[in-house]
User: Fold this.
Amino acid sequence: MAATFILDGASSSFNGDVANLMFKERLWRKLEVGTCLVKLFPNRKKERRTFRIKMETRQLIWFRTLAHVNKTEGCIDLQEIKEVRSGKRSKDFERFTDETTSATCCFVVLYGSEFNLNTLSCIAPNTEECADWVKGLTFLTEDTISSPYPLQVERWLRKEFYEIERLSGKSLVQFKDVKSTFQPRANVKITTAKLKELFQEVSKSTELGFDEFAQLYHSMIFVKEIVALDLGRYFPDQQTVSLHRMQDFLVMEQNDLVGQDCNAVIELMTQFLTDPVRQNKEPYFTVMEFEDFLFSKENGIWDPGNNTVMQSMDEPLCKYWIASSHNTYLTGDQLKSESSCEAYARALRMGCRCIELDCWDGPKELPIITHAFTMTSKIKFLDVIKTIREHAFATSEFPVILSIEDHCSLPQQRNMAKYFQDVFGDMLCVAPVDKDEKQLPSPNKLKGKIIVKHKKLPDNEQQQTAISGTDSEDGFPAEQDLRFSSKRGILYLEDRLAREWTPHYFVLNSHKLFYTGETGENSCEEEGAGGDEVSEQEEAATNGQAPHLNAPWFHCSKEGYSREYVENLLSKMSDGAFLVRYSTTFKGDYTLSFVRQGKANHCHIKSRQERGREKYYLVDQVAFSSLTELINYYRDHPLRSNEFQLKLVEAIPAIQTHENKDWFHTNLSKEEAEDMLRRVPRDGAFLIRGRVSDSNLFAISFRVERRILHCRIKRDGNNYIIGDGDVTATFESLNELVQYYQTHPLYKSVKLNKKFPVSRELVDRHIFDEQEDIYDGAGIYTDPNCFQAPSISVKALYDYTAHRPDELSFPKNAIIFNVDTKQDKDWWRGDYGGKKQQWFPCNHVVQIDSSQKEEETPLGIMQQGAIDVRGAEIVSTSKVNNLYVFKLRLLVGAEREIGCSDTDELTDWIQKIREASQLPDNLETHQSERSYKIAKELSDLIVYCRAVTFAPDKFPRDFREMSSLSESKAEKYLTGQKASAFVSINRMQLTRIYPKGTRVESSNYDPMLAWNCGSQFVALNYQTPDRSMQINAARFLVNGCCGYVLQPECMRSELYNPSCKVALASSNPVTVSLRIIAARHLPKTGRSISCPSVEVEVIGAEYDSSSYGGSNKYKTSKDRNEAAGFNPLWNETCEFDVVNPELAFLRFVVQDEDVFGEPSFIGQATYPMPSLRSGYRSVPLKNSYSEELELASLLVHLDVSRANEDQQIYQTLQQLQEESQNLCQRIEEARLEGDMAKVEEMRLKQSELEDLKRSKREERRRYRQRKLSRQEKPKFLQKKKLSSVSLRSN
Assistant:
């Protein structure tokens, strides 16, 4: 252990003096030995645990103090630690109110690889011990992250070795452990014969120690073809790469000046040497070590020079892109997620420099922050700004802007101003930097300052007009903004299929009642407040299922197991073993079977009704409300009779068989399955069907998005394999398959619905709607990618009453969704009022655009439906179970029943709905303009970032003003003729763009257009792991992740136009030649071994981006090798022409496929193009939150050259590209017009254009090869060439 510690210490990134190093070593040794600390649990418990650092794997582990060290209760990888915080600053401490514990003895570890971090809260025995843990963990985390690649691989291998050791119970690894445990974990599946061969090469024994295990790993991951492709000349003996050849490689292939410094190369190579003896001589690489170097972070594609602030920070603020967050306080969606101070800390530590505070009146004149009128929780304004003060400059010293969305009264605004001054003190910017300034100050001049963005009291009438709008919208809030609806909350709808009332989130605006899908009532309750995880029995009860059905002792067969079968099960068991089954004698009751004195005994479990509830009992005096309670009682209390007393001890688990499951059907055709599923209109409703003709073939049929899909299942021995072709998943039983896909998505985001396994009984009790239309494709098992549900929406111009059962009735202004216009030119089909795909006359409607559609879907993708309450009336009220139900009769004649939880809510909802039903269509007649008031105390704090309504016609304005635009409003200024004017405004003034109000799920818009038009604050939802946030993370990687990036020189030119490449003042186009060679350590996305592919795209200006019709996108084929996820090989080449590389990103996405052929995300890497290094480079992969995946990386070869050095070919390619884009637009227009003959004709022409482009690119490639061949070769290659000439002459 000591030797390992010294090795780790040698790799330390700390460069302090000897005393500092000795202090750290002493501290690390102390943490390695371990300490007894008190751990706080979410259920308000606190217990002692022994904590220690496992130095070999760099993990923090803990276990019960009296337990053996191998019985680890929990562990944290040090590389996942984001912060070690002293004091009682976590939710665990908030729940645990103990005033006697000193804050100086407490600390919190925040860790994870997502936006919302996990916490570990501990109490040390004294202040000194606490300080040691805080310092030691901080030092060790930094050291772990900065460790060289070989050391990181060794630590990963040790974690795998110890995990195999834990599972097998042995200290050495056997062949079967590698095959059954290591291979699935490492995402590799090598044939048994090949694996045995590799195993025997590293050890003649049948067992491996760690050193042999590491050798086996290196043999498995090494792919000789990678270095043999083009780099064989650097190891002519096929064995080693010498120091001088390594220098030549760095200079000639990598364009890296480090290769000219012999000592620097020696230091670099030493980190990768597995043999310590070579460290004392002139080092050399083995071929395996050289390949390890190629995949290492030390050889990364990212230029490490960008890890420090390297841009000028003396330009005005308006010349920078500034990292900005929207709804910073939220940890998830905008309906029911939690608001948290930790979200502010996380965003600031990620480099965000502009954060949002939605301020509302709180109790006792104390403001709060929340997404008002939703189920999101509330946090105190004072707690938030204290968190901001603590974390504002932890990552960056440059200014933080607080974007205030103010809904507070004047007294509470004054309190806000006071808190700002008290908490921030001198950090608060309350006066101009220079008295006579005529432009915004620079980030350097505002270092360490906090700027408040808010409206400021006007000096004159003109300014009064400028600030008359709200900060969230530059005018009256849009109707679809949830915060300005008339009522919202939880109501209940009856699910007649499930025979229960389910909660939904409802929003009432001026004339419509919108609602989400089924939701939880207590979604924003504090995590863990009720204790630990919910048990399976509790979950089953919540789902309306008897808890005993999931109990291990219950043997579920409705026909009942025979006595002989049960006695055979019990015959080999000891006394107290038991099971419960359906009674074969007393139908509807149960039987308890148990072992006494080696023999089976059977007791009748009786049942009776008491006050409408089922009771179960063995003796009349002791009755229970469930079988689970009965069994638990007799586990603690003995069964008593005149002959014996016996407690139930060991439950005999049921033999898992699918034949008795509701969802299994022995012989059902595809058509019959679809007919049954049509009667159960619920996403995730499913069944599995077998074949009498072949007992090894099955199929799962299920509903998703109004479609029915099918997937084959094949039995192979004792395994069940789902899927066809390359992507499959293997299970030990159909029960396991169903249980897995009830908790994991089977198709897209849809899981099998636990409530709706489709049986004959379920179908018979559901009323079949013959008009329901299921979209299905051709073929027996249709490729899901071919499904395209209609997406057109129309608005009714007149009232219409149906004349036939298959027609829709609707009032004027109704919105009809999913309209199909192709089946009849006069009559269309669509969805309205709960009816699907019914007919209506097309001359009664008009098609609406996306912005109008947003007004009808204020709940975004979470919206399930809407009820038009105009002209509606409440016809009755009643009580159903514990709910108060009112019946709503709509203008179209339909009736809807809606439930409330109490009478007060019932009265309030009825009143609001009646008011809405009587309002006129014209909103202007009942909306009065809101009066916005600003407290002088708060106004006095506003210097820069003065919030005003965006008014481009009044430009130029005061440089200190700042406008906020919603995404919808900004779209008008980001493209077309208005884009240039918007760019001009942004050269002098600040603008902030934020997501539209209908993004209830907290999704993000594409930030590229806004950045390209010069908008400084492009606010995104940091908590959402989508493509937009990944691009945002890449944007602010440069300049030391300080949150400020200087806009490129091209954007400052008066000629700059974001959508016109001709207008570029100093065009410097480049050609990016990229070879995607291989990858390592790709994580698994599901149960099966990966078949990964890589998609590469250029994102930048409109004319360069693949997203806007460009061709700068390439996807490799899938690697179908047996070791695909572990070390796939592609060796495919692509080429991109980039007109404006200063605005461009290069994005890599690695994907797998699920069993339906749908893409499944594995990892991504996105980089600004000017910050990349050429040559053979490693591309470290990140997860969807832009956190690095352990050891996962691509190997690519990147070459960036001037695109116009071969001017004629370049111009031809550009012309072909423009022709191709124009043709794409014409194809789409013809497709919409229905002229398919013209579409096919133009597609043939497009194919010819693509062939021409490939031909021209090949011509350019040959031209460059000839040019490169004339360049100077490495010295050792020149010598080799000369000796060959001499030999021939002799």
Remarks:
- The mean pLDDT is 81.
